[in-house]
Amino acid sequence: MRILVVGAGATGGYFGALLARAGRDVTFLVRPARAEALRERGLRIVGRDEEWVLTPRLVTADVLDGPYDLVLLSVKSTGLDGAIEDIAPAVGPDTVVVPLLNGLAHMDALNARLGTASVLGGVAKVVTTLDDSGDIRRLAPLAHLTLGEQDGTDTARAARIRAVLEEAGIASPVPAHAVTAMWHKWVFITTLGAVTSLMRGTVGDVYDAPGGPGLGPAVLDEAAAVAAAAGHPVPAAERAATLAVVSVPGSPMVPSLYRDLAAGRPTEVEHLFGDLTERARSLGVATPLLDLATLHLRVHQRRVTAGTTSGRDRPRPTSPPTGSDRLRPAPTGSDRTVGAGARRRALARAPAWTFAAVHGSSPETVAGTRPARDHGAMNVHTSLPLGLDWATAPAAWSLSDGVLTVTAAPRTDLFTDPLGGAARRDAAVALTTPPEGDWQFSARLRVGFRSAWDAGALVVRSDDAHWAKLNFEQAPDGTPCVFSVVTRGRSDDAVGSPVTGEALWLRISRIGEGFAFHVSDDGGLWRLVRQFALTGPRPLRIGVEVQSPVGEGCRVDFDDIRLTPTSLPHLIDGR
Question: Which of 87-91, 199-203, 352-356, 419-423 is the least confident region?
């Protein structure tokens, strides 16, 4: 398969690098300045204790030949028209184009120029950014690209592309409907963007003001009404997940749109808001708040174009804290505990996880921000109990009265198929580094089961190929059970005993070079689930995970969270 990646930023560059490293025939179409930088330094992937460099195959528009089998289009909407003309020589009768932009206007432009049969849609998630050196900095292991035909059918060509992505370590599940997924992402982006941009403040600034709590739901109602009228209604679980993001007291969250607005830079107002409100009018849907947000951003855009914005004119962005300003629960003694009576802020002011979507390449911050230089990645880093950080962010989370509540996004999992080897790594995961030597990591879990395989878990991880988790999970027959998974390249999957109570304590113990899983109904009497070894690089990371592999999302409450440096003297009864 001959692959052309248009752009070599945080999103397209990262996906292209993974494909090239897997031995695929990948060429990057870049501007001359970017080509010169890549020839000097190579395409570098850094961060998360790794660094690797590729010597990429580069081409500029003036010498592009074709056709290619697959084109990944990763540009801003402002560069779309030029990019479409640039890639035209690369598109033949069998070429498939997968764009990585927000909104849907680009789909109309691509369909008109290249033909509907050449263009797929979908949703991608990465946690990367382009740093000051032009390197792609990897902030979490997530690499996820869902794609499908615009008419919702599942075709052989889409399956072939998914197989290529999976072989390169890019998770690519089959979507229920790719265009519907794009609409739902668009609803989320415009809701968050309108709330923060209209009020010139963070989510918390808006929510905490008198009358503020009603704005997010009102904007979401308008955006969701447009999607429903277009034939893509937003499910209740996704609406709830969006509300959980835009209705958080004290949240420092702002999207990239707000950061561009605050810095006096151009925004993608027409692509995101102008197109949505125009569709609303054609569908007969009233959107007064979205219309107001569109006007507000258009005024800003005109001033930017005219060069009349100044520091005095710009809204003051909320800067993320650094150093001692970051809020982290401080451990006391040898037992770091978040007990049921502990009171800590739900959201810290550190940068938060973000994701880019196919038809969603602008970074949308889920809980906090860090300025990013590339439009294709989201930067996330949240302050959580025990020094946990989001490796893969959830749809929503909060911390109140010592209870960490995490909601997984729909159809997310952490599993590597033992038969086919395909990896899923899009479940919500937060990790921290345990102490040296033996330790015990435990928590009580309450899971809001809705679908088969919904679960909350504790996880221990060496790398993507070596990890294990202990789950409180719903079996296909609806019975809550204990499940455990140990992954050594591929995952096993072991079913334990049914659980009759509403809550269950889980515990991971390190015993020398080995590990043990235990569960308890009361936090006092423990029973062994399994003992195992886990090879792979060190240091280890441990944490929590929430998944909903086939469902519409899953909410889990974690409390009595403990990480204690201690040895386990009795393996069987866990004493």
Answer: 352-356
